[in-house]
Amino acid sequence: MPNLQRFLSSSPLAATSFCSGSITSASVFKVQSRGVRYKNSGGMIGGRRKRIPLNWRDLNFNPARLPSAWKPPDWDKKQEIDYEREKELAKYTPGYKPAIPSHEKDDYHKEPVYFINSSLPFSEGLKQALFVTKSVIADSGLPKQIHNLAESVSYTEQDQRAIQVIRHAHLFDVDPRSLDKENKVQRWKADNYRIVAKPDRYCPLIMKELIRLCETRSFQLSESFRNRIVIEGPRSIACFRRDCSSLDTEFLPVQDTSWNIRFDLCADMQIHSKDPLSAFADSNAVLATKDISLAPIYPIMPIADLKSTHNYDFVTNSGFSSKFSRPHLHTIALFNTDQLPPNLIYGKMLTHLFTLLYSKALETYGDNPQDLSSPLSAQCVASDGRVFQFMCMQLNTTKLNSDDGIKNMVWVDNEYVKEELYQTDDGMTSAAMYEECGHTTWKSPEYYTGYNPDVFKLFQGFWLNGVL
Amino acid sequence: MLIDGVKRTLVQQLNICFKQPKIFGKVQPLSPTSFIHSQRQFLQKLNIFNSARKFHSSPFINGRYGHRLVKLWEQPEYTTEPLHVYRTGGRLPVKNWKDEIVPGRVWTAKLGGGLPRKWYWVDTHRMTAEEVVAGAVFQEKITKIMPDDNRSAFIALVAGPVKRRWILCTENMKVGDLVTNSAQLTESLTGWTPNDGDAYPLCLLAIGTKVCSVEFFPGKGGQIARSAGAFCTITKKFDGRVQLQMPSKREIVVNEKCVAVVGTVSNSNHWNEDWGSAFRRREYGLRPRTGRKHKNDGRFARRAMPVRAPLIMPDKPFLQKDNNFEE
């Protein structure tokens, strides 16, 4: 038997012939022909098929070049609104609010309005805002009376207290979002391992704590702190028609240079007082603004990048009734939690100041555009927790029909703002209260570096303006 | 002499062959001298856009930044904000049983992974066809210049009269400069000579000027010479048409109302920069490769090729079965 076994293994063909049965013979045939068939026919037994079509390059299957292939097939269907079906649904379902096309709504106007929200600032920042609100930068730096006040009000321990506020916000403040163990708040994975404080947490905290320091100081100095009130998140609307007659329309795509503009804004914090702020500039200085021309914004138009709608309500509203006990605006505080560059933030501050002052002026002096007999003035502070911006404004006119005549006046803490106005977004600078603070600054024993005492001094002077 | 399996005359070898223009849009009668190897070559001769080697499975030929999926249909209008780039992993879109579109079978195995990147909506229409017809003139101010993850050239953010937008940055653009888009020559803006970065219709530009981001058809947006350091040169002008030399040295004849940007594209030293490491390629989403390229197939030298005839474009784009978005 071993001899026979050896014989069988050496010659399989003989073995197949020896073993009766067609299955074994077929399997041998398959083994021999599989490689050839695989090459030629690509897995198909009967027909001839090329594995790669001849014109496979023509098919253009590149997914990067064919984003439309990734588009959901029902995308366009979902975007469309069937208004007739909406009407039918409204008939038979009580409480259903049907979607109406915009031209059939009640607040539809033929002429569009260009609007600004707190989420949609001027894209060109301060330069564009100055032109739209018909205001000029009056002087380099803030008015002198604020600097003098800041000097007189300051005391020795204030820097130590301000630093303690900063260190509290950056080092010892516990973010409740880091404590949720059920993981209800969906966050990036990296945030779980982060110890550093986040700007949307520390920025309002620092501002409110600094304001508290100023209020304690005002309590020491006088008894007028009762005249004030702090309001968080009030809404105010200013609607006006702006006619920019001085625009050179030779290389601009429009001939008509008058637009309806609407500011609809919510300030983060706002301080109102019983007595109005004293004016920053004399009547002579106000008259002198006739000769100053508006800062040119060529090549952009004043409405560049603004959104427009036909559905709007063209009514100005300061958000306060006339019987309100503290009717006069003192200061606005803005939290720059998105860490916008200073140029955009200055533009945002100016729009906030203008809406509140303009709506107040319309309430007191009437809707007719005019030069105000006693100008309104207010202040604004903005911060991202580290960098502070200060602005003062004096509303001299509500005549926005032309670029000539008396203009509104603006003061900014940056002394070189007139030069930096025409640089890029990143070109403008403003003062920082400290360089760095946090657990990462372990090299300095106090965990902060580069404290600038002038910033809080100015902040305090701003806040105590009109108290003494 | 046998090159590429074709017998060529001495004149053809010396690159002095007669230029025989090809007209697209209708089927061109083939000359008896031309020799057709295969069906594919026939298709190539018929229509360049449907059969030429425009796309390849290899990202090294398509371009190193060629792997992207941006959901532009979700955008209601133009934005300057960066959009998210979804990685496909070299997979084709298929429907699943829910009729959602998901990545399906592998189309190319050479893509995958990589760092997250952002896509900036670069506007290739410096002027639309309507503005060219109306003779519009407007200027834009450059506010920012920065590199882009998805292309070799730099991009520039410009503030125009109506909106701000991203455009391709040319070599000599600087922040704070004004660039002009004009359909007529005006002395007051540029002093009769176009500056670098200005956009004009080709009829207003002189012969010999270097231009980039050139349109093939009026109003379609710039299509050729958009990568780093690329430019076209204007060689001829005749009855409403302009002949250009493309970066591939091939010549093309287009309508004179096609808009082009004066100057060369920025980052011209791009070809000279080094990848640094193999991991750098992975950061761009390219998987490792093996083997050697035999792309030119000249073995050890450049293959001598005859000069190809210029392409002649019609006034309107002919029918193409192509659903491409821009970019």
From TrEMBL, chain A:
Protein name: Large ribosomal subunit protein mL37
One protein family per Pfam: PDCD9
InterPro entries: mtLSU_mL37, Ribosomal_mL37/mL65
Subcellular location: Mitochondrion
Organism: Clavelina lepadiformis
Stated family: Belongs to the mitochondrion-specific ribosomal protein mL37 family.
Keywords: Mitochondrion, Ribonucleoprotein, Ribosomal protein, Transit peptide
PANTHER family: LARGE RIBOSOMAL SUBUNIT PROTEIN ML37, MITOCHONDRIAL RIBOSOMAL PROTEIN L37
UniProtKB/TrEMBL annotation, chain B:
Domain Large ribosomal subunit protein uL2 RNA-binding stretches: 104-181
Pfam families: Ribosomal_L2_C
SMART domains documented for this protein: Ribosomal_L2, Ribosomal_L2_C
Entry superkingdom: Eukaryota
Descriptive protein name: Ribosomal protein L2
Species assigned in the record: Clavelina lepadiformis (Light-bulb sea squirt)
Entry keyword set: Ribonucleoprotein, Ribosomal protein
Matches recorded under InterPro entries: NA-bd_OB-fold, Rib_uL2_dom2, Ribosomal_uL2, Ribosomal_uL2_C, Ribosomal_uL2_RNA-bd_dom, Translation_prot_SH3-like_sf
Transmembrane segments: none
PANTHER family recorded: LARGE RIBOSOMAL SUBUNIT PROTEIN UL2M (PTHR13691:SF73), RIBOSOMAL PROTEIN L2 (PTHR13691)
Family assignment from sequence similarity: Belongs to the universal ribosomal protein uL2 family.
Residue stretches making up the Large ribosomal subunit protein uL2 C-terminal domain: 194-306
